[in-house]
Amino acid sequence: MKFPHHRRWILGALLLGGCPAEAVQPGPEDPPAETMPARAAKPSNLASDEEVRFIPTFGTKTAQGWSVPIEAWVFEPEDDGPVRAATVKLIEEAMETKVDAVTSKRIAANLRPFMVDNERGKRLTIRAESTTTQVCKSGSDGRCSGVLLLPQTSPATLEVSVVLPAGDERHFAGRVFLLPDEGVSVLSDIDDTIKITEVHDKARLIENTFARPSRACPGVAALYRRWASQGAAFHYVSNSPLPLLGAIEQLIDDAGYPPGSLQLKPFRWTDGSFLDLLAAPEDHKQQVITDLIEQFEHRRFVLVGDTGERDPEVYATLLRSHGDRVAKVYLRDTGSMPNDALEARLGGVFEGLPRTSWTVFEDASEIQDELPAS
What we know:
Blueprint: H1 5-15, E1 34-35, E2 51-54, E3 57-61, E4 66-76, H2 82-95, H3 101-111, E5 117-118, E6 123-128, E7 131-137, E8 143-150, E9 157-162, E10 173-179, E11 183-189, H4 202-211, H5 220-229, E12 233-241, H6 245-255, E13 261-265, H7 274-277, H8 281-295, E14 299-306, H9 311-321, E15 326-332, H10 339-349, E16 358-361
Parallel strand pairs: 3-10, 11-12, 11-14, 12-13, 14-15, 15-16
Antiparallel strand pairs: 1-7, 2-4, 3-4, 4-5, 4-8, 6-7, 6-9, 9-10
Helix pairs in contact: 1-2, 2-3, 2-4, 8-9
């Protein structure tokens, strides 16, 4: 589809990596987000128009208690304006289908997290039960990463919240899960594994991300709930950019997936395009998974992904490098390639590995496997 020149730049900003006028503008280089040293717990230096979203994490056991990673995103929401309205219109035109008022509002709502002003230099003081401490300072992408140390008596799931200045009655909170070193974890991809995204088709990816209600992949939530009842913990890892955090958490709740940690990619318009940030999973996903496996020395892992992108290649590499820790690989067939081509691809990818170490499925209700022993 052809767009007038003066309007094409807006769609290019969204899909090809430019920076819309309302999006965060590049500024001087900042130090990365940093963990703050232990100090008196002053309130967070958060302005009244700035917000915090927590990314769910797992804490690990230490000799003194629990070490809890804090991952937060600090940003200032932006009002609707002409650039966002024009971008919504261009997405509607690019879909080449009639868009009703409800869909148009959905597109605008799903675009909103991509057009916020990330806040750098914000020091967050975090409270969890009786522990209050200044944990981290946000970097130029709004990410704030630190560690909260908790005593031995903490429960398995707890709330962490931001300590705000006096008179600020808002409440920014998130969940943290405390995970022992022993047991079994399900490490799950998101796009086309638990959520129908159709990443292999850019037009459908745009439609499924911005214009359609999120749809769960068939049978996966029931399978995950069964594994959760058998003691599994869940880690969701994706190449989806951070602004999709709210939509992904909503899908997990609505579809009945077990709660768990989330790993998403950082996002700034100056870092590249939205579509670029969904690509090349080896660079992001493989390192994240490797770090998780090595973080929990005595846990075993079940890896669940799909055939639409590079999950088979990533998971086969992990089977070879961490075979004693990876119990099984499951791959959802997205139908993005003919059966004979898929069989040839997977045969090459998993060459030399036991055929029992990986399974392909279309509907997760086909899988009757019990959770492997730890």
